[in-house]
Amino acid sequence: MKYKGSCHCGAVQYEVEASGEIECQECNCSICSKSGYLHLIVPKSKFKLLEGESYLTTYTFDTGEAKHRFCKVCGIKSFYIPRSNPDGYDVNVRCLEPQPKKINIHLFDGKNWEEHAHELSHLSKDA
User: In this structure, are residues 42 and 106 in contact, taking their beta carbons and an 8 Å threshold?
Assistant: First the structure.
């Protein structure tokens, strides 16, 4: 199924291909818990930025490997390139339209990221 995703103001828009029943992660690290992000990690082949590249800005911290992409207009991070899966994209399920029919949320211990990152590595591989 193809979902359309966007930031709040609509300047950044993309498509992502995923199942009708979404398996996603809710992370307890400081950036994810403060922003309410629900993670859907997909291979690069399943993501297409439709418009808004010029409206995106990038935030990095710690190792600088994760590329947190935010809309310069409204400040929403609707997708980013995760440290755990630099060969894919991490899409915020809350930014998808239509919303998936079923969302299964799995808790991820991002506060202890180094111990648990390997649990996500398979998510950006093409099936």
Answer: no
Regarding pTM above 0.85, the answer is: yes
CATH class (in words) of the domain with range 2-124: mainly beta
Question: Phi, psi (5° rounding) for residue 9?
Answer: -85, -15
Q: What is the pLDDT of residues 2-45, one digit of tens each?
A: 999 999 999 999 999 999 999 999 999 999 999 999 999 999 99
Domain ranges of the chain: 2-124
